[in-house]
Design goal:
Number of strands: 10
Order of helices and strands: HHHHHHEEEEEEHEEEE
Number of helices: 7
CATH topology of the largest domain: Immunoglobulin-like
Strand order of the largest sheet: 7-3-2-1-10
Radius of gyration: 40 Å
């Protein structure tokens, strides 16, 4: 089926009946621009309009699809060929439209997902070391939760493995700012099984998470973080240490392309 040939045929039949594009358009219920597109071969009418058009132009549908009046002996074969061609082109346009819609939806979903999560996921290293403690861990921010993970918490005092090493019955760690506001706190009760502090800390792991809405900790106050360690020895004597910890950014999803 030749769209340009069919278009010229429609224009020829219209003119033979002394109709303007506007008059033909009014008779079949479309606008003149649509008639113009048909006559220039840009597209074809759908099946219902094709039938109405053939009635107004006093030709068969197969004549319109063929772009000329055809003889009766050829009409059946030509009609089938043109209908098949018309169906194929209609399906092709439909498939292209569906694929375009799917592509647009995927693009919109990806864009919304990217910007809704942009700069929302971050990982920061926690590092601290002095003559008593060595600490390595992470603070992780996500849109739903935040995590404080300290898998390496070691006591390295020079009295380790000696009789002077503290034997403790309780131990607590908290993360605070310089004003004493507590972001998280973790406690360990050893009153029934007192141990050397080095052994306790070698086995001590912090894996703490909270909903963001419940915590004061955020990316803006990471420069003012202090680790507070309190322990009570076997003689019920309490010891408290407060250290400023170093926070380094390891990852944040603030790039559109990695």
């Amino acid at each position: 089926m030749n769209l340009e040939k069919t278009g010229k045929f429609i224009a020829k039949l219209r003119k033979e009946q002394n109709m303007t594009q506007e008059e033909l358009a009014e008779r079949i219920g479309v606008n003149a621009k649509t008639i113009s597109k048909w006559e220039t071969g840009i597209n074809l009418p759908d099946s219902v309009l094709l039938f109405n058009l053939s009635k107004e132009l006093k030709v068969s549908v197969q004549d319109l699809l063929n772009g000329e009046k055809i003889k009766k002996e050829k009409s059946k074969k030509s009609f089938i060929n043109n209908i098949n061609s018309y169906i194929f082109k209609t399906k092709k346009k439909f498939i292209i439209l569906i694929l375009l819609i799917i592509f647009i939806l995927i693009f919109l979903f990806s864009t919304i997902y990217t910007f809704s999560n942009y700069n929302k996921n971050s990982i920061y290293n926690i590092n601290f070391s002095n003559n008593l403690y060595q600490i390595n861990g992470y603070i992780i921010f996500s849109p739903q939760k935040q995590f404080v993970i300290i898998p390496n918490f070691n006591y390295i005092g020079e009295n380790i493995s000696t009789s002077d090493e503290p034997i403790i019955k309780s131990f607590s760690v908290s993360l605070e700012n310089n004003n004493g506001e507590t972001y998280f706190s973790n406690e360990l009760d050893l009153s029934e099984n007192m141990q050397f502090i080095s052994k306790v800390l070698n086995e001590y792991k912090i894996d703490y998470n909270v909903e963001n809405s419940m915590s004061l900790l955020n990316k803006n106050n990471l420069k003012d973080l202090y680790l507070v360690i309190i322990y009570m020895d076997k003689n019920d004597k309490s010891f408290k240490s407060k250290f400023k910890v170093k926070i380094d950014e390891e990852f944040t999803n603030n790039k559109l392309i990695y």
